[in-house]
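Dear support,

I submitted the protein below through the web form. The confirmation email said the job was done, but the results page showed an empty box. After a refresh the structure appeared. I'm attaching both so you can tell me whether what I see now is the final result or a partial one.
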Amino acid sequence: MHPVNYQDLTALYHFNLLGYLNEGTEEEIAIIQCSPKKDKENKVRFKGKIMVYTKWDAIRTVVGTYDYVPNHWKWIGGNEISISYRLNEQKKSEFEFARVKGTTKNRAKQQKHTEEAWLYVTKSLPDFEAGDVLPPFQRDDREVYKKLTYDPTFWQKNVPIQHTKLQAEVIQAIEKRKAFR
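What the results page shows now:
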């Protein structure tokens, strides 16, 4: 299985083989249970299943939950995660789609908020290789964002999804503060 990050995941998680789908075929898939090790529960929050094509050592699906650490604001919550990959022509995993459904709760005020997001990939970049990815924490995203330009006129003419009145007011307020370049 290709590393999700540049660290040894076996130091953080227990992996348990639950069984196989399509056993004995080219499409054989191992189902692996993933759970945090007891001494790592405050550092890692993913629990779930990883499905891997055994013949090609390629990830097929990741499903599970990613929970937040309770904080001093008394907010708790978590995300249901479903990530699907497809095999490319070289029989390597290629991202297909992801679904994240997040819920947060405030224990003190008994408030609850849920959001759901889907991300689909319709076209892959054939020349993109694993070596093109920077190791985590090598680049500060805030520095990248500062270099991005923002053209309010372009976005007013090319609205991908029509804004609600409240969303339009928020965007105008942000533009007025010149939070974007």
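Response: this is the final, complete result; the empty box was a page-load delay. The mean pLDDT is 79.
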